């Protein structure tokens, strides 16, 4: 193996290990933070650039996830363009993504009155 190839390979390996460390550190920081603990946030790192994706409940949680990731040593920049805020008004039920039936075609509530159960 030529020396140049070995140096290139070792540099790439070192970068991959560094990215894996950053990913693990960001994931654990998000998992142990009270603000983002229950959220499903995916983390990918490439050359120190961290990409966050998934859904959070509020815009504030999105900002907190970005801030927490940015606080990790070695993070160069954050891409949170795929981190979506999913707000559900109180008393409503969230729709599943890619739901096949629309709201107009949904059958009325199947709850029976007390008289129908007897």
UniProtKB/TrEMBL annotation:
Residues of the BON domain: 18-87
Xref: PROSITE patterns: BON (PS50914)
Source organism of this protein record: Metapseudomonas boanensis
Disordered: region residues: 83-118
Protein's recorded name: BON domain-containing protein
Gene3D superfamilies membership: 3.30.1340.30
InterPro entries the UniProt entry points to: BON_dom (IPR007055), Lipoprotein_DolP (IPR051686)
């Amino acid at each position: 193996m030529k020396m140049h190839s070995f140096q290139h390979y070792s540099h790439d390996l070192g970068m991959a290990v560094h990215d894996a460390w950053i990913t693990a550190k960001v994931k654990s920081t998000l998992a142990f933070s009270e603000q983002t603990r229950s959220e499903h946030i995916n983390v990918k790192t490439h050359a120190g650039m961290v990409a966050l994706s998934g859904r959070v409940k509020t815009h504030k949680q999105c900002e907190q996830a970005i801030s927490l990731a940015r606080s990790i040593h070695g993070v160069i920049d954050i891409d949170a363009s795929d981190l979506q805020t999913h707000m559900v008004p109180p008393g409503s039920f969230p729709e599943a993504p890619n739901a096949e039936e629309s709201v107009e075609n949904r059958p009325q509530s199947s709850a029976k009155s007390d008289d129908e159960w007897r």
